[in-house]
C-alpha cells in the first residue's frame, strides 16, 4: 500500500483564506485539541461531566470573544471565528458548544446589547475567561416559538427588576458567573435582557440528566423565583426580541461551522481507521466501497465548509441576512448527520465503540442538528425569502 495520506479534510485549502497569524493560531488550537482534549474527552463524555481543568488552557489561547473589537477582545475576522468553531468541534463538539455559549451568545449579548459601561465592566474578564457566561432564552414550553411564547417575566420596582420563570437547555448555567436572561416585561410585553450574577438569591439550576448527545455540556433548567436584578444589570440596548435576534443571527453561522467540524472529526477518525484496519489481508482503505464512503464524506465536508466560508465573508462585510445564515445552518447540519453516519458505517461494529471516537461524534451531531433553530424552522425562514410567502403560522 502507498504511504498513508495526510489526515486533513480541508481539501480545497480554505485555511489559505486566513491571515498568517490567524492560521498559526488555528493550528495552536488544533494542537491543544489533539494533545489535551482528545486523550481525556471520552471519559468525561461517559461520565457526563465538564472538564473544568481545561479552561485555563483555553484561556491561554486567547480565543474568547474573537469577532469583537475592544474590551480585551481580539477583534479577529468572522471567517477565523467560524473556522475556530469548526476546529474546536473537530476535536469535541461539546467544548465547541461551551465556547459558543460563552464567547458567542453570552459575550455577544453584552457586546451587541450592553451599554458602554456594561461592556467595560464584564467583557474584559470574560475574554480572559475569568468570568464564564451562559445564555438563557429557551424555556420548557417555548423553543422555536420563544419570540411569542416566552413565559419568563420581569417587572420593575424602582431601580430593581423582579424576574420569574424557567429556562431550559441552558448550557453552562450551573457553573456560569454571568447568566444572560431574556424575559418579557409584564407592562409592555417587550423582551428585555438581564445579566444575572452567580449567587443571586432566587436563582437555581438543575442539570438535565441522561442526555445521549453533548454529554460534556452541562445543560440545565433554570428557575427564577423573584430574582432581584438591579437596573444597572439590565442590558441597556436590548429593547425587544429583535435585539435578541441580532445575537442569534451572529451565532447561527458559528453553529453551521461547528457542524462542519463535527463532520471533519468523524471523517478523520474514519480515515485513520481505514488505513490501519485490515480485512482479507489488506487495509480496508484499499476497498472500493470504503473509498466511496470516504469520498462521500469529504464531498459533504467540502461543500459545507465552502458555504460557511462565503457566509463568514458576508458576515465580515456586514451584509449577511437571516435567510443566508438559516440556509447554512439547515444544509450543513443535514450533511453532518449523513457524514457521521457514513463514518460509523465504515467502521462496522467497531463504530459504536467510544474508544474509536466516531460514536461520540455521531451522538453529538443529533444535538447540533436541533439547537439554534431546527432544520424545519430554518427551512421555513429560507422558504419565505425565496417564495415571498410565509408558511410559518
TrEMBL record:
It comes from Blastococcus aurantiacus. Its cofactor is FAD. Belongs to the acyl-CoA dehydrogenase family. This is Glutaryl-CoA dehydrogenase. InterPro entries: ACX4-like (IPR045008), Acyl-CoA_DH_CS (IPR006089), Acyl-CoA_Oxase/DH_mid-dom (IPR006091), Acyl-CoA_Oxase/DH_mid-dom_sf (IPR046373), AcylCo_DH-like_C (IPR036250), AcylCo_DH/oxidase_C (IPR009075), AcylCoA_DH/ox_N (IPR013786), AcylCoA_DH/ox_N_sf (IPR037069). Keywords: FAD, Flavoprotein, Oxidoreductase. It holds the Pfam family Acyl-CoA_dh_N. Residues 20-130 form the Acyl-CoA dehydrogenase/oxidase N-terminal domain. The keyword Oxidoreductase applies. Gene3D superfamilies: Acyl-CoA dehydrogenase/oxidase, N-terminal domain, Butyryl-CoA Dehydrogenase, subunit A, domain 2, Butyryl-CoA Dehydrogenase, subunit A, domain 3. Residues 134-227 form the Acyl-CoA oxidase/dehydrogenase middle domain. One of its GO terms (molecular function) is flavin adenine dinucleotide binding. The keyword Disulfide bond does not apply. Residues 244-386 form the Acyl-CoA dehydrogenase/oxidase C-terminal domain. SUPFAM superfamilies: Acyl-CoA dehydrogenase C-terminal domain-like (SSF47203), Acyl-CoA dehydrogenase NM domain-like (SSF56645). One of its GO terms (biological process) is fatty acid beta-oxidation. It comes from the Bacteria.
Amino acid at each position: 500500500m502507498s504511504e498513508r495520506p495526510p489526515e486533513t479534510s480541508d481539501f480545497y485549502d480554505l485555511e489559505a483564506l486566513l491571515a498568517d497569524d490567524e492560521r498559526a493560531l488555528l493550528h495552536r488550537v488544533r494542537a491543544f485539541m489533539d494533545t489535551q482534549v482528545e486523550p481525556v474527552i471520552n471519559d468525561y463524555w461517559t461520565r457526563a461531566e465538564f472538564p473544568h481543568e481545561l479552561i485555563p488552557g483555553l484561556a491561554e489561547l486567547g480565543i474568547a470573544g474573537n469577532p469583537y473589537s475592544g474590551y480585551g477582545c481580539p477583534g479577529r475576522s468572522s471567517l477565523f471565528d467560524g473556522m475556530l468553531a469548526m476546529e474546536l468541534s473537530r476535536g469535541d463538539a461539546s467544548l465547541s458548544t461551551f465556547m459558543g455559549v460563552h464567547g458567542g451568545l453570552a459575550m455577544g449579548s453584552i457586546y451587541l446589547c450592553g451599554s458602554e459601561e456594561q461592556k467595560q465592566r464584564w467583557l474584559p474578564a470574560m475574554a480572559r475567561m475569568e468570568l464564564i457566561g451562559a445564555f438563557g432564552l429557551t424555556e420548557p414550553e417555548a423553543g422555536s416559538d420563544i419570540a411569542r411564547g416566552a413565559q419568563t417575566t420581569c417587572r420593575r420596582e424602582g431601580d430593581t427588576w423582579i424576574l420569574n420563570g424557567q429556562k431550559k437547555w441552558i448550557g453552562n448555567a450551573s457553573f456560569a458567573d454571568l447568566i444572560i436572561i431574556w424575559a418579557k416585561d409584564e407592562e409592555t410585553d417587550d423582551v428585555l435582557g438581564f445579566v444575572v450574577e452567580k449567587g443571586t438569591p432566587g436563582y437555581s439550576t438543575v442539570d438535565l440528566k441522561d442526555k445521549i448527545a453533548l454529554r460534556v455540556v452541562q445543560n440545565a433548567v433554570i428557575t427564577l423565583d423573584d430574582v432581584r436584578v438591579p437596573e444597572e444589570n439590565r442590558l441597556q440596548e436590548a429593547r425587544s426580541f429583535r435585539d435578541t435576534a441580532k445575537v442569534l443571527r451572529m451565532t447561527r453561522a458559528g453553529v453551521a461551522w461547528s457542524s462542519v467540524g463535527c463532520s471533519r472529526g468523524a471523517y478523520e477518525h474514519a480515515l485513520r481507521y481505514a488505513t490501519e484496519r485490515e480485512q482479507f489481508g489488506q487495509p480496508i482503505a484499499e476497498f472500493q466501497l470504503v473509498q466511496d464512503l470516504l469520498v462521500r464524506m469529504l464531498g459533504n465536508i467540502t461543500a459545507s465548509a465552502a458555504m460557511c466560508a462565503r457566509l463568514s465573508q458576508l458576515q465580515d462585510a456586514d451584509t449577511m441576512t437571516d435567510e443566508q445564515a438559516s440556509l447554512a445552518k439547515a444544509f450543513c447540519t443535514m450533511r453532518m448527520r449523513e457524514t457521521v453516519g457514513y463514518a460509523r458505517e465504515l467502521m462496522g461494529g467497531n463504530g459504536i465503540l467510544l474508544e474509536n471516537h466516531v460514536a461520540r461524534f455521531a451522538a453529538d451531531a443529533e444535538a447540533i442538528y436541533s439547537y439554534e433553530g431546527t432544520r424545519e424552522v430554518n427551512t421555513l425562514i429560507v422558504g419565505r425569502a425565496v417564495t415571498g410567502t410565509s408558511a410559518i403560522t
